[in-house]
Amino acid sequence: MQLDLDLPTACALYTVGLFYGTVTPGQAGDLLKAVYLRERGIPTAPALLSVVLDRLCDLIVMAWALGTIGVFALGRLLPSRELQQAIVILTGTGLVLMSVLLTARKPRSWLLTTILPRLAPRLRARLDRWNEQMHSLTLTTGLIGIVSGATLISASFTFLRIWLLFLALDLSAVPLLVVVGATALIAVLQVLPISFGGVGIRDVVLFAILSAYGYTQEQALTLSVLFLLINIEHLLIGFIVSFWFPLGRSGTISL
After folding, report:
1. Closest CA to 17 of 245, 194, 252
2. Among 90, 222, 245, 235, which Cα is nearest to 165's?
3. Which of 15, 73, 108, 170 has the greatest number of C-beta atoms within 10 Å?
4. For residues 173 and 14, what is the distance between their CA atoms, to the nearest angstrom?
């Protein structure tokens, strides 16, 4: 996307985004990264697009895991196989369409100059300005491949950590594919603005899954707490880094 930002600063802002995302409903605080980018000379539209695409990459991988593995692994929680297939198709189609609209130049321009102005006429001038700012932005196939690969690797480590938690609590009766599906389901549901850091959503999902395999609510709650501790670890790192990046003050990190 040709954003002029060095790697150490980008990594620092990413951790800060994790902090704000964890302490806000639906991880909405992650959008504050766009404010940080704007303070460092990056126009608003590309800054917002970079944040949205970052979230989309994570969601696409988790939705793919949920759609192709998790839905069928969690089949006993759904009333019919037809519903499983419908979830797979709708989730995959929706995420692919959204990704195309945001990454491809012509669909993105059509969205900003035709569709959204009709839905929100008062924002027409701002949408036109955003379209001009993003006119030269195009993601190449190679870059998309690199981003997708990095996201898959990151998600794989997440699945591995959660699976190790299951093993540590002697919940070995739960198959690995179910663990992957549960982790993906929690990640997707956390985007809904009904929970802080997934608290509540994670508990309900784990209660339902573990009870299906004969485990108690106490075991599910223990697993949920350990799951939360992993998120708190990310939160603390982002919180500490945020002291070096207060809002309203631009700056970078030098190696």
Report:
1. 245
2. 222
3. 73
4. 36
Cα-flanking dihedrals φ and ψ of residue 151, to 5°? -65, -40
Reduce the secondary structure of the chain to three states and give it as a string.
Answer: CCCCCCHHHHHHHHHHHHHHHHCCECCHHHHHHHHHHHHCCCCHHHHHHHHHHHHHHHHHHHHHHHHHHHHHHCHHHCCCHHHHHHHHHHHHHHHHHHHHHHHCHHHHHHHHHHHHHHHCHHHHHHHHHHHHHCCCCCCCHHHHHHHHHHHHHHHHHHHHHHHHHHHHCCCCCCCHHHHHHHHHHHHHHCCCCCCECCCCHHHHHHHHHHHHCCCCHHHHHHHHHHHHHHHHHHHHHHHHHHCCCCCCCCCCCCC
**pLDDT tens by residue, 135-166:** 656 666 666 677 778 888 888 888 898 899 99
**Other C-beta atoms lying within 10 Å of the C-beta of residue 96:** 12
The two three-digit tokens of residue 181, written as one number = 């599906």
- Looking at the chain, the whole-number percentage of residues with pLDDT higher than 90 is 3
Strand-pair partners of 196 = 25
pTM over 0.70: no
CA distances from 55 to 41, 77, 87, 187 (A): 22, 27, 20, 11
Query: Which of 44, 2, 158, 173 minimizes the C-alpha distance to 32?
Result: 44
Distances from the Cα of 137 to the Cαs of 3, 9, 117, 130, in angstroms?
A: 10, 21, 21, 11
